[in-house]
Design goal:
Length: 243
């Protein structure tokens, strides 16, 4: 039986856009900015139970960092998150090895400025009206709160609902309705010295169906992105209220 060669793709990822990687593909972004923290959102979209492992290359002097995304059927899994700082590198690449078989992942970049190409994602302003807004998969909300206290609330009836909040050099992973086991090992990976500093990436848990966080605006942008599956996000909401 004649073997079939796999055509590898080198993908320009400078817009941080939502793309799909298959075996042999590499996506490269050369547009990271110093002082900004970026989240790499990785979903297993192969629709089988096989895990997929991507390699994140951020330095010529350090080996690539592997991130394993658990297998899932019907595209039902939540995201694995990798965080890297533009202070450490201007360039980051995400690859699936050529021997990855039928592995397939969806990826995009999140930060206060990424993705600049929002194709494939829903990008909305989050008004400070205290109203609950749908927080679906592929959704990004942004706001520039004034210099006063605000309250952010995320709700979900689903166990272990994940989302991520970005500031310029910080990120917070919110876990609503946490399970007794907590996050899966490897679900949140920090890459490089700056992203690995204490306080750069925080994880905030609640054991109930909502989580609230008081924040003080300062005229800079805040961003919130869903990191869960489509069906787990159907009942999720996000709200911002002026105090």
């Amino acid at each position: 039986m004649e073997s079939v060669a796999i055509s590898a793709a080198q993908i320009n990822w400078n817009g941080g856009q939502r793309i799909t990687l298959t075996a042999g593909d590499t996506a490269t972004c050369t547009a990271l900015s110093p002082g900004q923290l970026y989240g790499i959102f990785i979903y297993n979209s192969a629709q089988n139970d096989n895990n997929s492992t991507v390699s994140v290359n951020w330095s010529n002097s350090q080996p690539p960092v592997p991130i394993t995304v658990p297998g899932t059927t019907a595209n039902a899994g939540l995201a694995s998150l990798g965080f890297v700082s533009g202070t450490d590198t201007q360039t980051v690449s995400v690859s699936l090895s050529s021997n990855a078989g039928k592995s397939q992942v969806e990826i995009w970049l999140g930060s206060v400025s990424m993705p600049t190409n929002t194709s494939g994602l829903s990008n909305y302003p989050l008004p400070a009206d205290g109203e609950q807004h749908p927080f679906n998969k592929y959704t990004r909300y942004y706001a520039v709160p004034p210099s006063k206290w605000m309250n952010l609330t995320i709700t979900s009836t689903i166990t272990q609902f994940l989302s991520c909040q970005f500031r310029e050099a910080q990120a917070t992973v919110f876990v609503v309705n946490e399970t007794s086991n907590g996050l899966l090992s490897g679900q949140v990976t920090t890459i490089g010295p700056t992203a690995s500093e204490v306080g750069a990436v925080k994880i905030s848990y609640s054991q109930i169906q909502s989580i609230s966080n008081n924040l003080q605006g300062d005229g800079t942008q805040w961003v919130w992105m869903d990191a869960d599956s489509q069906q787990n996000s159907q009942s999720a909401t996000i709200s911002l209220q002026s105090l």
